[in-house]
Amino acid sequence: MKIVIGSDHAAFDAKTKLITFLENRKISIVDVGTSSEQRCDYPIFAAAVCQKVLEEKILGIVLCGSGIGVSMVANRFSGIRAALCRSVEDARLSRQHNNANVLCMGGRSSSQEDINSMAMEWLASFFEGGRHSGRLALFDSLGVSPEDLKS
Amino acid sequence: MKIVIGSDHAAFDAKTKLITFLENRKISIVDVGTSSEQRCDYPIFAAAVCQKVLEEKILGIVLCGSGIGVSMVANRFSGIRAALCRSVEDARLSRQHNNANVLCMGGRSSSQEDINSMAMEWLASFFEGGRHSGRLALFDSLGVSPEDLKS
Known about the structure:
Helix content of chain A is about 45%, strand content about 15%. Chain A is α/β, with parallel strands linked by helices. Chain A has a single domain (about 1-150), classed as Sugar-phosphate isomerase, RpiB/LacA/LacB (Ribose 5-phosphate Isomerase B, Chain: A, 3-Layer(aba) Sandwich). A 5-stranded parallel sheet of chain A has the order 2-1-3-5-4, sandwiched between helices. The termini of chain A are far apart. Chains A and B meet through helix 2, helix 3, strand 4, helix 4 and helix 6 of A and helix 2, helix 3, strand 4, helix 4 and helix 6 of B.
């Protein structure tokens, strides 16, 4: 299994430890940065993760301080369903119900243990389909303008 | 102050109680539904809230079971910055740092007390600007395609 991971400076330490944790479990990682704790801008790394997810049809993980900023950016991309998770249950449900292809977490809002556990649960969970498919089709068809809803 | 609120069936009860709580504090509410606990699809109500936020330049609140689904949908809209919050600190930071104009919460993942407190904190907090403005400009300029990043 290969996944892509990125973060800003606020979650650089959490990302580094998560990568080690996942690589020890035979998961192959593409790390798109950032590469230090020097201040940087979260949209760059959220976008880089999404780009790779869409191009290679793999799953992605992106972190910032709270996870809120990266989840805003990631969901701007058509084809991305980014879930900000704070618990193992969130992680499982976001795969089962929302078919999330990007997992967003906060390096300052979650413990390293929770970050590692959420990532493992997320990667091990699968979309349930059924009534959830119709909902995804509905919102996947939404454009960037609310006008689209009127047609 | 006027705001718009919506939810799916899973958060109908939480939405109803939140509306009463806010109206008791002299906040004027536009409720776009849903109007019962009958099963419905969260994208419809997330989109209706976003449409009103964009048209009237007001703040919006949208809830589903976890808050994850509605945050995915809301962030698809250009001009929307939707923050999934689970704590009062999340609510404050999402206004201060991300200038969120939509607050997403989970009727099943947060207590009613937390939902009410997050809403009040969020409505009382303001964007800090500064370095955060550059980040918002950066991701606000992102389109729905990662190709945009290459140009």
